[in-house]
């Protein structure tokens, strides 16, 4: 289905685009950098300092992502009638406190796996609420015809964090230890809270106040915004399989490179850095690809090509430098496709969904697509313990190839072909 991009922009949002969006982006970009350090440091600490097994690493990853399944729907309903700005500030401050508790516990010699499990679970819940609030706030700061570029900038911040974060985390880990490296993430959360606090935009109060809210109905409306729109439903199915594959890959990768092959944090970080470089390039290219090919074909065409690089992983063998280079190349290519897909996905959802449903739509999408992440993390641990990390690498390209298949549906392929947009009109009629 085509995307209707001529929706009348809110003049207030257009005015704020030059200032408030840059402030939001500046805070988010730094926070994403810090978050990547934590995503590196937590499993690395578990493996090297606490001697965690593959199953325990899988459980750690699963606990971080479990809130992605349980939290989104209630969070989306809760956020729909609340200002997003204060929520973003509070979640940033709470996240800083959580991260700081790890080096504090380490300094007193009381750090254990149970502590890391608690940090993963609570941190994941905070990330869910923060992301839903942020994605629902962006369309209020940016005119509709600039959403793709704005989402590209946000995803570039995420990708740059993925690029610099692992390398910085590896360097800091070697210098001061993995738990102490988390101090930088805490500072990044404080910076994000400060920049969000500087936003001048204030969301208007709801036009109507309900004395009694019909929560089941509100949840159904959010779910319908995702599953009742064929193109969004197929993109969500792709993302659900893809996200499970990413977590499976993360578990297998750290065990294979760090534990089995004995590579240090620098080599492991270099592989992740190259993945981040690919994501940056794909994200930057996304707006131009969308303009040239349309939303659907840009996403399908890119991912159908780049996903094949995952076959390099189980085939890589030989000297250490060759293995590291092969893994780095594979992650760089595949992450470029993911960068394009991420920009298309979020922009399509924002354009197809009425503004009054953005929080609930984003929550429903997060539940559907991130709810599979704990499964992928646990599956990675099970496969490594049953088959070994090297053999488990063969499942990675199979999972990611399967994730591309839903994008071949005509409702996705035709996105961006013509100015009319019946899908969004239908949503507005039903809600």
From TrEMBL:
Keyword Mitochondrion: no
Transmembrane domains' residue ranges: 59-79, 86-108, 114-133, 154-178, 266-286, 298-316, 322-346, 367-385, 391-408
Record's keyword terms, sorted: Cell membrane, Membrane, Transmembrane, Transmembrane helix, Transport
Signal peptide segment: none
Lineage, broadest ranks: Bacteria, Bacillati, Actinomycetota, Actinomycetes, Kitasatosporales
Transmembrane helix listed as a keyword: yes
Localization (cell): Cell membrane
Protein name in the entry: MFS transporter
Matches recorded under Gene3D superfamilies: MFS general substrate transporter like domains
Membrane topology: Multi-pass membrane protein
